[in-house]
Backbone:
């Protein structure tokens, strides 16, 4: 975690100086998200079959109801990461989220502990290889703690917190769409890393084979906000408190 010598608000402001999170709400920005996903999910980590994505973009049937965010490195203009939130189907017959289909396959669908009308599924978390730092952490290398108490807010120092921008993107989407719960199918190691920052997820059902061993899980958004407030002040200052509309989350909690 951040040391007592660090000022969370100053760190959050320094982060904004180097990175920006934007909504991928134009064809050009969506194309950048799909390109980055292809690089991470098809080339660097062969989770998806490249033969099914011959144009260098990775898409799937749930993209038509997803809201996408991109993290932009301001100095270079390059896209450092992307993530999407799959919205619940509120019009017409229920359209299961991917996690619901996975739980149904393992006969755990009856254990779903979230309101279907106000839950998003977060997926396609991808960080450019250019910004992944440490050897042996090819997929989640951007999350790291720091004991550096130097007052210099350098760009190098911000790199370990790159995922904060993607978290902010998800929180902003949830605030805009009145979302109360977040679910995901994640690698257990990533769940533990997020837990260190106060982003606690509850396991749903058992481990599944889905691009490797994964754990279906869910979190109540207001609990994640409060958890980050006390356990990771910088994350709260940047990704939660600064996200427009977060102060209005409470009325949406089921």
Residues:
């Amino acid at each position: 975690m951040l040391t007592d010598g660090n000022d969370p608000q100053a760190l959050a402001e320094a982060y904004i100086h180097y990175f920006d999170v934007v909504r991928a709400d134009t064809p050009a920005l969506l194309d950048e998200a799909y390109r980055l996903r292809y690089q991470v999910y098809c080339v660097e980590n062969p989770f998806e079959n490249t033969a099914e994505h011959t144009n260098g973009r990775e898409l799937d049937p749930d993209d038509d109801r997803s809201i996408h965010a991109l993290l932009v490195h301001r100095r270079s203009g390059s896209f450092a990461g992307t993530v999407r939130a799959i919205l619940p189907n509120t019009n017409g017959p229920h359209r299961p989220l991917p996690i619901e289909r996975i739980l149904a396959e393992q006969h755990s669908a009856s254990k779903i502990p979230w309101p279907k009308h106000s839950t998003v599924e977060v997926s396609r978390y991808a960080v450019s290889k250019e910004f992944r730092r440490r050897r042996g952490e090819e997929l989640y290398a951007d999350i790291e703690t720091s004991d550096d108490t130097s007052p210099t807010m350098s760009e190098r120092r911000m790199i370990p917190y790159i995922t904060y921008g993607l978290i902010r993107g998800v929180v902003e989407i949830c605030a805009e769409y009145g979302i109360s719960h977040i679910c995901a199918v994640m690698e257990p190691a990533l769940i533990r890393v997020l837990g260190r920052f106060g982003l606690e997820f509850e396991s749903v059902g058992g481990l599944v084979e889905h691009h490797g061993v994964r754990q279906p899980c869910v979190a109540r958004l207001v609990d994640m906000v409060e958890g980050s407030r006390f356990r990771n002040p910088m994350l709260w200052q940047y990704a939660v408190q600064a996200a427009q509309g977060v102060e209005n989350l409470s009325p949406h909690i089921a």
Notes: The domain at 8-252 is CATH 3.40.630.30 (Aminopeptidase). Residues 43 and 81 are 15 Å apart (CA to CA). Residues 27-44 form the longest helix (18 residues).
